[in-house]
Structures are given as structure tokens and as C-alpha cells.
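Attaching the record inline, Q. Sequence:
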Amino acid sequence: MKYCDRSAPRDWVDNAVRLIDADAQRSADTHLLRYPLPADWNVQLYLKDESTHITGSLKHRLARSLFLYSICNGWITEGTTVVEASSGSTAVSEAYFAKLLGLDFVAVMPVGTSQRKIALIEAQGGRCHFVSRPPDMYTEAARLAAESGGHYMDQFTHAERATDWRGNNNIADSIFTQLQLETHPVPEWIVMGAGTGGTSATIGRYIRYRRHATRLAVVDPENSAFYGGYETGDAGYQTGMPSHIEGIGRPRVEPSFVGQVVDRMIEVPDAASIAAMRYGGRVLGRRIGASTGTNLWGVFHLIGEMLARGRSGSVVTVLCDGGDRYADTYFDDDWVAAQGWDLTEPTAVIDEFHSTGIWNG
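Structure, as predicted:
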């Protein structure tokens, strides 16, 4: 008789899952903020404030899900080096969880990544590895993981499958629970950007699973491939150009983007994202990131449509991260001007909307 037994003690795995669950247990759910709109519009706007996670962004949820998924699949165990292709918030959050579990973490990113982002990753115990060409991040991350006997997390492939979209306190479940006592507990729209596409996939699936009438809109910045892929139905669509809005937009349609659960996509110019970021931050009394500005531009568009049709209801979007980490970029007038962005026209469009409810964007 022959048999092959690869079982190993699960003490480390059991403890790793316990540590991640305990970390979540210590954290309250993120707030659902009301954005002030005129009462006579009878439209309520809410922002799910993901900046309050301990690593400061929506990507904290993704990183937690990716680690649990990889541990339970047997890909990460004691002593595994974790490698990711990311120069942004995902790397910060994954570095946090790697440190929690006593694992080495390497973030592969382009040269020229801002020192502020590098410092955030290193503050969580991560190490940064640089490539000269952004498209090389994926293959270099896979090479480093293979070379070290580690695990390439590959957020862009695994994001949509790592989160339990049926519930289990995912972001969609949280949003609908927090809306239960509101005037319009089932929103007309939920508006999201796409980086990996994992969050929009989770929300779109959850809406269908719970049989809500809510529709999902995905906003997409300049240079990103998601809008073109959605419009043409081409899952292999590429622009080959990076997004200038950190956290969202990709030069290719990522495997985790599930366009079939998206009801509408809206392209947003970069200047509009920055104008909405700054305007929305002033209204809320706090700095917010550029991807939240992209969300708000799409939200204002949809609320303008609702008002034009005489519809009441609620709309929800995500406050993806705070603006402090962008003090030397999106909030720096000289830096913005150097990108060739003129915020005058989009700011006037937003101002008119807030004053009249009319959207001319």
C-alpha cells in the first residue's frame, strides 16, 4: 500500500487566524458619515469612512481577507516571506498583517514611488523593492517569491475571491446594516472606484444575493483600462498607461474586476477628481484622498440625475483614505499645476451642483 501524507501541525495556522480575528475584534466598524445636502432635495448621501482602519484605508479589509485566504489555502505558513506588487495602501496594510504574524514582507514598486508611501510601508516593517518599469511589478514579485520560497499575494488576481461576498461583515453587509434606521435604507446607488476590482465585485454580488434594488456604479480615472474593458466587453483591454489617482485605475483590466455585476461606469477626468477631493474635504471639514474625489464626482452626477427625474432616495460611496498622506501631491498647488490640471472648471461645476442641484459635468 502506498500513500502520500503532507499533513503538518496546524498550531501556527490556528494561531495566525486567531491573531487576525482578534485584531478585527479589537476594531469597531467604520463610520457611515452623512454628507450635508439641502433637506428639500430628499436625497441623502453617505460616505463609508474606511480611513479609520488602523492602516488608514479601505485596503485594510482587502489585506485581512488576502491573508486569511492565503493561510487557509496553505500558501502562507510559519516563516513564509510574503511578496506583493503594490506601491500604495495595499502594501501598507499587508505589511501590517505580516508584522502581526511575524512574517517578512516585501512590496515591489516602481522607482519614483513617493517617499511618503515608502515610509508608511517601512513603518509597518515592510521592505521595498524597486523596478524601473511599472508593468514589471507583477513578474518581479512572482520571481522574488519563488526565489525566497515565499508567497506572491497577487492582490489583482485574488481580491474578488478572498472576500466572502455573501456576508461575514464585508463592506457591503456593513453598509446595509448601518442604513437600516435611515429614511431610505436601501440606496439607489453605491458608487465605487476600482483598483483590483475586488470591492466592487463584493458589493455587486452582495446586492444580487440579498435581492436589493440598489445599483452599482464604478467610477474610473483617466488612463485606466476598466472603463474601456467594460464598454467593449474586452477582459483583455489595456491602456498601458498608469492612473494618476492613487488606489484606483489600472493599465489593464485586472482578473478581479467583475464587470457583469456593475450597472454603470463613469469616466472621471483627473482634474475633476482633485477638484471634488478638495471640495468634498472642505464640506466634511477634513482632508480626503483623491480616489474619494473620483467617487464624489460620480456621486454628484448620479444625484443630479435623480433630482432631474424627481426621485428621492439615498446614495452611498466610500471615503477610501485620508488626505494627509497626499499633502505634497494632490494638496500641493504647484504639484497639481505641474501635472497640467486646471481645477477651475470642475470646481465651478461642483459649486453649481451644491447650489442648485443641477449637474452639468
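The mean pLDDT is 94. Strands lie at 32-35, 43-49, 82-85, 105-110, 127-131, 151-152, 189-193, 215-221, 264-268, 313-319.

More tomorrow.
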